[in-house]
Design a protein that fits this description.
This protein has a 6-stranded mixed beta sheet. A hairpin with a 4-residue loop joins strand 17 and strand 18. The chain is α+β, with helices and mostly antiparallel strands. The mean pLDDT is about 95. Among the domains are: about 160 residues, Gyrase A, domain 2; about 80 residues, Beta Barrel (Elongation Factor Tu (Ef-tu), domain 3). The protein has 9 helices and 20 strands.
Length: about 400
Amino acid sequence: MSQDRMSQDRIRKHRDETMMLTSPFHSRIVKACEINQWSEWKGVTTPDAYTDVELEYFAIRNSTGVFDLSPMTKYRISGPDAEAYLNRLITRDITKIKVGRVAYTVWCNDNGQVMDDGTIFHLAENDYRLCSYTRAMDWLCWSAMGFDVSIVDETYEVAALAVQGPTSCAILREMGCEGLEQLKSFGIKSFAFEGTDLLVSRTGFTGDLGYELWIDPTKAEVLWDKLFEAGKHRGIKPFGSHALEMARIEAGFVQATVDFIPAQDEVRQGRSRSPLELGLEWMVDFNKPMFNGKKALLKERQQGSRYRFVFLDVEGNKPAAHSFIFKGKKQVGIVTSAAWCPTAKSNIALAQVDAKYGEVGDLLIAEIYYQRELHWSKVMAKCTVIEKPVFNPPRRRLTPVMDY
């Protein structure tokens, strides 16, 4: 059976009577989703929350939270020129990412504007998996001209769970992943599971100790059952997109279509951003051979960027979502993400400001509007630019992992 035919069969299998796509874990998720709050992620029905957003958030920070990653776009890239192709595509040096390792990266258009960010898994020699938020098959294929490479959309061929929090390693070891405590951050390890391979990566989008599990969709339900059985005495809970949003803001992670507009979606000129403008210059390797956008990024580095991406500690407890940022009476930026972060006990915002503002320690003002009982209030809250995210615990990278 061809790869396309297999994908179509999998898609048909995971549709309900409304013809909406469902995850391979849907039968378990729908039973756990007590408050019936749902959204769609790339056409797939996914929960915003299961029970209570704050309890789900605290599961991530104090025990273990489980998030269904299956709708994430996944591309398998292989062939004799896979390494050379990816090194031309992305801003990082792919040759430094060894087999069995994962790397966070971005890729740009010729103008040095970010198309998307994502993770690259080096599974074997000239065999990679690229995971991203947006669909990118057209761009990947256009960029592959002249390379002997195969690009396969395997989004529906791989089910995935994010297992995040301090007890995540102990739970996975209880489930049979022996030796997992020795796996370093951004490492990959394979385990035998129900007659197939369970791929475990020490990765995640919460800024905490955590793992992502990758498996054949036919084994999704049994994986869910065994995972929650193993974690029943360590506080395991499923969590939805709202709790994930709180965790990723606290950790300072940017989100495509929220903190930046992917260049291919830009309608008005000047609305996209470069990696330098998103605080991601550390992922741009100017010493490697030519890559998409290198010339434009070199020019930007020499002449200066238009914008600066900053972390803000906001006065008070009203989240500054969608606020304008002022220096004195002049508007100098906008907030892209904001949340009250319970663990850090901080009111945090991620913002884009004009490049000449936003040095660490700079004092700015956020114009915050919030509604209570149909009444809108306005607060001009003081903001301090801080150097780094407020949540970055040592356990996130500690190896071997402590047995919580």
